[in-house]
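Components:
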Amino acid sequence: MTPMTRRSFLQTTVAGTAALGLSNSLFYRSASAQTALTVGFIYVGPKDDYGYNQAHAEGAAVIKALPGVTIIEEENVPETVDVQKTMESMINLDGAGLIFPTSFGYFDPHMLAMAEKYPDVQFRHCGGLWQEGKNPANTGSYFGYIGQGQYLNGINAGYATKSKKIGFVAAKPIPQVLQNINSFLLGARSVDPTITCQVIFTGEWSLAVKEAEATNALIDQGADVITCHVDSPKVVVETAAGRGAFICGYHANQSPLAPEKYLTGAEWAWGNVYTDFIKKAQAGEPLGNFVRGGLKDGFVKMSPLGPGVSEEARKKFDATLAEIKTGTFSVFKGPLKDNKGADVVTAGQAFAEDAIELESMAYLVEGVVGSTS
Amino acid sequence: MTIQANLSSEPVLSTRNPSAVLEWLARQAEPVVISLGAILAGLALFSIFIVLVGKSPIDLFKLMYTGGFGSWFSIQNSLSRAAPLLLTGLCVALPARLGLVIIGGEGAVVLGGVAAAAAALPLIGVLPPAIVLVIMAVAGMIMGGIWIGLAGLLRHYRGVNETISSLLLAYIAIALMNHVIEGVLRDPASLNKPSTTPLPADYMLGNIPGMDVNWGLAIGVVACIVSWIIIETTSVGFAARIAGGNVRAAQIQGLPVGQLIVGFTALAGTFAGLAGMVEVAAVQGSANASLAAGYGYTGILVAFLARHNPLAIIPVAILLGGIDASGGLIQRRLGLPDATVLVLQGTLFIVILFCETLYGRFKMFNPDLWKRSA
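Structure:
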């Protein structure tokens, strides 16, 4: 076969199909098939991880049912040249016209490099990193504000805890994670201001042994409600439930793992987001380059409340959720100190969930036991 | 498994005696036939597994061909994935010739990448890209050499098992990397994914002209050839093979076994460190947690499949790159999980290790036996 550039390969998609002897059941991006769309999903871990990747795979499953849409998925793709080649392979061999690389680390340089090479393909990245003028127009970001979901988790934890100690198993001390920890504690403190939250950082997004150790250590120190921010909460949930602690979930619904001990959870609702993208793509409308939303926009949802949730807790949970859905609720409002005693939010100040100040959060609020470094 | 020193002097190809040619061919054919047979047997076993999960092995192998080697794009895809494995494979193969099993190449990759990124930081804009890249390569190689050399040092002077120590050193390396990229070397702009400050585009190591594969591939191939020359044609390589075959004999001969052990482990580490530098300079643009992508561990598989022959590492790495490249297509078209490819790799690994025991058992490859029975 003569050397063929990828560009010419794309332009002669039909010929390429015949030459490669590919299955003709695939949909290709072509002028003759306006509504037929092949959508690629790339996951950094297994798609049945009860966590980050499962949340995206559930979203993909929702759009699978839409007419004219073919879904192609690849899991366990590392953030190396592998993901670049996976994107190219989806474009060249499967004819993908829209690609969702779902892991944070896929953006720069991997997705950006592929987007420049394939200007006719649309790329949308989960993580909120896209910058106008700096990044290609055929790329974009989508992300959800899930901090208020952790605040609602905290409310349930506040009612469920007897020891007044709750625990958080965290991956890395980065802004997104710190915001979740702080929101969880502030939710619990809205119920009882004496509650403290111990946090343990494992240092990795997916490290089952350390996550189990951290969960056990938190419970040994008296915590009786546990939540986490790691890629797969499965180990944390099962370990905590095995020790008799209550659990608040994260990323996806983990209640099947511990039906009695699961209070609620902050889940992504990517199905809504993906459906919106696909409908726009099929209608020929622009997809939007920067899409974000929270509970009120349907980007994030709460797991159904479990049997361990009291009537009192349910009332406060429902009321707060209703307030959040009006868009006027602020988790971070002054006066607020960090756990070293410094003022971080002054009196009278209140940050909405999309406030830019929250995106570089580098502190743990008063009441969180732990350190960012 | 035994690590063969292969000390018997190769029969010189003689045109005077046609049967000598035949004997030479027979000896050369043994590793090729056994290796290919092992791969075929592994694929056959894997087919049984595929049938058990309800898929057609024929479809699967067709897809593997399409995804790995079926087009120029697929070939480049495979070569891109093979590139780092060439260097990490050498990190295992070279010490293995001395009888050492080093499995911690990952640590040298990670720290080599960090050292390369750190070395480049103060030089951006001061020196031209070509010189900065050379300095990055040297920094990565020194760092990697020190790291794996340390395992050799511990082995020779303190009697610490090099397999265990190199593995533990890899964990330390990853922890060290996390420490510096989340600390002193962190680019403040890298909020949610701690990284060093990215290299400007003109300081990146680009692609090989005419190909969509970065220079790492060429560097890896050259490294394999150089390693082969060192092992097979130099007196140092000969001494290493003697030490690997029988360390007592080597000592009695007065060979500097300690220097050989430290030297070869350090050399092995320089290659893995270079792989880390390429990862930073050609792919990532900065050092971050993505450096620990498992290349060091896949290198173990590559080296063992290549029977620690540096030249054989080239086709083996490309084969594994192809399997990896086709893994995505298998997931997408057949709906099989990613673990399918791991099952295939594991099956091949076990079968090839098993086939090591077949060497010397076939009469057709052993001309000495022909004469005896005649």
